[in-house]
Amino acid sequence: MLTLSKLFMTALLSISLCCLVSLNGAYAQAGNKVASTDTSDLATQLKAAKAAYEQGESNLARKHLLVLVEKSPDIYEAHYLLSLIYGQESNFSLSIVHARKCINLKGDFAPAYAVLGRSLASMNKFDEAIPALEKSCRLDSRSASNLSNLAVVLAKSGNYKKALECFKLASELDPHYVNAYLGMSSCLGKLGDLDGQVAACRKACEMVPESALGHARLGILLSEKGDFVGSLSEGFKANVLRLKESWSEFLGTFLTAWASVFLAFAAIFAVVFAGSRFKPQEGETVVRSFFLTFYKDKPGRFVVTSDRLVFVPEAFSAWFGSTNVSIQRGQIESINYLSTVGGGTVSILTRDGSVHQFRMPLLVLDPLRSLLVSQGLVSRDPEAPPSGAVSPDVQVQPAESSAAKSESEAVIDAVNESQSAAKDEAKVSESGIDAESDVEPIAEPSSGNDEAKEPESAAESTQESSEENSGSEASVTEEKKE
User: Could you say which of 374, 402, 437 is where a domain stops?
Assistant: First the structure.
């Protein structure tokens, strides 16, 4: 038993010694590896950081670069890459720090000035950003991106004319640089050249037809000018290009569904407003037309011509009985505008007292109001008489004739009554009854006194009628003189 125990213990000791030897070897190898990492080539470390950045692994690239600048702070490229990464992460303070370190190490390195200028501009330090960007353009005069960066900062500071010049130079250096054309378009819009703004966007789409941003911007500008057909076309192109650019297994399915919905609404919109066609009358010219207009909740098209304001309903409303609304310019009494958050209303009052109300989005209301004001269709001339009114110096002959005729007939009737009364009085006189006798009336008019009373009343009425006739004849004579 003792022998077996000794053998067992000896075996355990041997195994333990082997394990210790193995561990010592492993620790030695690990130590050798760490030592090898500490003494690795700096160029290899920089290359690894660049590779990680190009593959989109900014975090890994930043870790490599921080280790690199800690070991060797004099590598200007490491500071430049760090400034670039921090700027993309919106950490502009650290971006500025490393950009300036890079410039201190290599004063003629144009990309470092460009990053410094962009970071300063992002912090609204335009006075410091513009000199840095100008220095980058001087150091690399063939860089369209540097000129474009300078133009963007100039535009942000309000100097649109100089920014436009820089964008033009950038487009000349690189005719396929889409940002230069889009920048020109924005500057022209700020300077009030709307046609030039659209033309610059068209140039961007012409030179870089695969630019989704260019087609999207052009679609927005066309919609603002009222060209909804062109706007839909450019929007469709932009969505197709975006699908191609961001295509993936998940995102592609999502965007396809979204694009299908967009196309469905675009098709409905096109069909709805395709029927609102307008044909001007002979000698009439169309000044401008506006879609997305509603009259009595019916969509259609509002057309301003040289003679009229016309609402043309869309196809479906026309099929269900909706008709055109035509308002002659001369019949307009006044035009009122009401703007709300969701849209606006144009109320047109005509001289016959009718009120026509048209609802539309603010995108349509603002240019329509500007057009109507420029056309002088805000209110009518206060000196002009309303439609159907009669001038004060014009007499209405038929009404006066009928009135005079009725008064003449009344006078003739009164004369006839007086003559008949006179005849009755003469008969009473011949019968011997005194017309002037004062006879008291009795309750029962069965005696002859009643006969005397009646002629007396007739005589009095005859006298009164004669006086009235003379007055009436005098008034008729005066009216005839007038």
Answer: 374
Query: Which structure tokens are listed for 219?
Result: 């679609």
Q: Is residue 325 part of a domain?
A: yes
Task: Tell me how far apart the terminal alpha carbons of the chain are, to the nearest angstrom.
Answer: 165
Compute the average pLDDT of residues 13-17: 52
Report long-range pairs for 349-355 (Cβ below 8 Å, ≥24 apart).
351/380, 351/386, 351/387, 351/388, 352/387, 352/388
**Structural domains of the chain, count:** 2
Contact 340, 346 (CB under 8 A): no
Q: Which helix (H) or strand (E) holds 336?
A: strand 332-339
Beta strands in 340-407 (DSSP E): 344-350, 355-360
Q: Bridge partners of 203?
A: none
Query: Going by C-beta distance under 8 Å and a sequence separation of 6 or more, which residues neighbour residue 404?
Result: 476, 479, 480
> Does residue 351 lie within any of the structural domains?
yes
Question: Quick one: 269 and 312 in the same domain?
Answer: no
SS3 content of the chain, % helix, strand, coil (to 5): 65, 10, 25
The distance from CA 430 to its chain's CA centroid, rounded to whole angstroms, is 101
> At 297, which CATH number?
2.30.29.30
Enumerate the β-bridge partners of residue 336: 347
Determine if the pTM surpasses 0.70: no
User: Cα 456 to the chain's mean position, in Å?
Assistant: 92
Structural domain of 225: 210-274
Using the predicted structure, report yes or no on whether residue 419 has a pLDDT greater than 70.
Answer: no
Separation of alpha carbons 309 and 329, rounded Å:
7
Separation CA 276–CA 269 (nearest Å): 12
Question: 75: which DSSP letter?
Answer: -
Of all helices (H) and strands (E), which one includes residue 184? helix 178-190
Domain boundary among 314, 341, 374: 374
What are 248-293's pLDDT values in tens digits? 555 556 656 666 776 666 666 665 555 556 788 888 999 998 988 8
Residue 44 CA from chain centroid, whole number: 57
312 shares a domain with 257: no
What DSSP line would sit under 272-298, residue for residue? HHHT----PPTT--EEEEEEEEEETTE
